[in-house]
Design brief:
Two copies of one chain form a homodimer. With 211 residues, chain A is mainly α. Helices cover 74% and strands 0% of the residues of chain A. The first copy, chain A, has ten helices and no strands. Chain A has helices at 10-34, 37-44, 48-54, 58-78, 86-103, 105-116, 123-146, 155-171, 173-179, 189-205. Chain A is globular. The first copy, chain A, starts with 9 loop residues before the first helix and ends in a 6-residue tail after the last helix. At the A-B interface, helix 1, helix 6, helix 7, helix 8 and helix 9 of A face helix 1, helix 6, helix 7, helix 8 and helix 9 of B. The first copy, chain A, binds a DNA duplex (30 and 30 nucleotides) through residues 1-3, 9-12, 15, 36-38, 46-50, 52-53, 56-58.
Chain lengths: 211, 211
DNA sequence: GAAAAACTTGACTGAATGGTCAAATTGGAG
DNA sequence: CTCCAATTTGACCATTCAGTCAAGTTTTTC
C-alpha cells in the first residue's frame, strides 16, 4: 500500500514525476475525456495498475497536473510591479507570456481545454484566488491611469486582451501553422509575434497627445 | 432506408435540423469524445437509433455541425472591404466578431475545441481555404499600410490578434464570469468589451504623427 | 383507403476503458 | 543475508457507449 502519510519514498518521487509529465502531454492533446489511463501509462513506460498505484484515479492525475500548471501560469502575472514603469512592466509581462506559450504550449492547452469545458475542476479557484489576484492588478492599472502614465482603458479588458492574444499562439497553434507555414520553423517566429503584439497593444495604451 | 440520393423529405429536413442544433449544444459543451450520441438524441427528443437513421455516425454529425459553423464564422471576415476606410472596416469586423461571440458562444467553443485538439477534422480546410482567404486579406492590410492609412504592422499577427481577442469572450466565458460577475448579467457587458478592445487595438494601428 | 415508402424504437452486441485484485518481484534497513 | 514493506503486473470485472437489427408505426402516394 502506498503510504497514507505525506512521506514519499525515492521511487515514489521519481514515478509520480514521470506520470505527471506523461499526463500533461496526453491530457493537453486529447482533453480529459479523450485521454485514457492506458495512454498515459504507455507514455510513462509502466503498466496501468502500476500507475494507479501512485494516483487513485484518472481524475486525481488530471487535477494534480492542472494545479501544477496553474501556479506556473500565474507567476509572471504576480510579478507585475506596481512601482515599475507601466509600459515596461506590460512589455515584460507580454514577453513572458509569449515565451511561456512557446515553451509550454501543452500547459496552455490543458488550461484552455479546462476553461472551455466550463472549468469543472478549477471553478472554485477562478472565483477566489484568480479573481482576487486580477482585482489587485486591475487596481494597479487604474493607478497608472490616474497618474496619466497610460491611456484610460478598462483594466479588466486590457488583461483579458493580453491573455487572449498571448495564449492564442499556443492554443491555436495548428491554425497558425496552417496559415503561416514558416511558423513551423520556430526560429524568429515568436519574436515576430512579440513585436507585432507589443507594437499594437502598447501603442494602443500609450497616452495620446491629441484629443 | 434513408434515400441515397440528395433528395430530402419534409421530415428529413426537420429532423436533421433538430439533430444538428442539439449536436452543436452538446459537442460545444463536452467536446467530441466527451459527448455521447445518447445525449444528443435526448436533447433532440428522439431515440438513438432514430438519430442514427439520419446520420450514419457520431463523427458524421460532428463534421456536419463543424462545417456549418465554419461558414458562419467566416462571413464577416470575407466582408472586409478593401475599398472601405481601414479603421472603419476593422471596427466593423471586430464588432461583428464580438457580436458573434455573444450570440453563438457554442459555435466559437466548438471551433476552439477542434483547433485545440489539432484540428483532426478540418486540417485540410485550414491549409487550403482558410489560408487562401487570410493571405488575401493580409494583402488588403498591406495595401492600407502602403497607402499610409494604418501603421505598419504585420497583417497576419493583426488578424490573429483580432481573432484571439474577440473569441476569448466566448471561449473563456467561464473565466471572465468568475472574474467579472457583472458579466453574467449580459446587458452592456459586450458593449464595454467592444469599447475596450476597439480603443486599444485601433489606437494601436492608427498611424502616429510623432516618430 | 390500401399499398409502399419512410420513419421510429426496444433490445441487443462488441469494443473500449476505468478501476480491482492477488500473486509475484524488488529495494532497503538491520 | 533476511525479512518486510514497497513496487509491479497479468488477468479480470463492470460500465459505458457506438452502432445494429428486426419488428413495429406513421406518412405519402396513387
Amino acid at each position: 500500500m502506498i503510504s497514507t502519510g505525506n512521506k514519499r519514498t525515492r521511487i515514489q518521487g521519481i514515478n509520480r514525476g514521470i506520470i505527471l509529465d506523461a499526463a500533461l502531454e496526453v491530457f493537453s492533446t486529447y482533453g480529459f475525456r479523450g485521454s485514457t489511463i492506458d495512454q498515459i501509462a504507455d507514455k510513462a513506460g509502466m503498466s496501468k495498475p502500476n500507475l494507479l498505484y501512485y494516483f487513485p484515479s484518472k481524475e486525481d492525475i488530471y487535477v494534480t497536473v492542472l494545479e501544477n500548471t496553474l501556479e506556473h501560469w500565474l507567476t509572471p502575472f504576480r510579478d507585475i510591479d506596481p512601482d515599475g514603469d507601466p509600459i515596461e512592466e506590460l512589455r515584460k509581462y507580454i514577453r513572458e507570456k509569449l515565451k511561456f506559450s512557446a515553451m509550454s504550449p501543452e500547459s496552455s492547452r490543458l488550461f484552455a481545454n479546462e476553461i472551455l469545458h466550463g472549468a469543472p475542476a478549477i471553478h472554485e479557484f477562478l472565483q477566489s484566488n484568480l479573481k482576487r489576484l486580477v482585482d489587485e492588478k486591475a487596481d494597479v492599472v487604474n493607478q497608472w491611469i490616474a497618474q496619466g502614465k497610460i491611456a484610460p482603458v478598462d483594466p479588466y479588458h486590457l488583461i483579458f486582451m493580453i491573455w487572449a492574444t498571448t495564449q492564442h499562439y499556443a492554443d491555436f497553434d495548428v491554425q497558425i501553422r496552417a496559415i503561416l507555414p514558416e511558423a513551423a520553423e520556430g526560429n524568429g517566429f515568436f519574436d515576430a509575434a512579440a513585436d507585432s503584439v507589443l507594437t499594437i497593444m502598447l501603442n494602443g495604451i500609450v497616452p495620446r497627445q491629441d484629443g
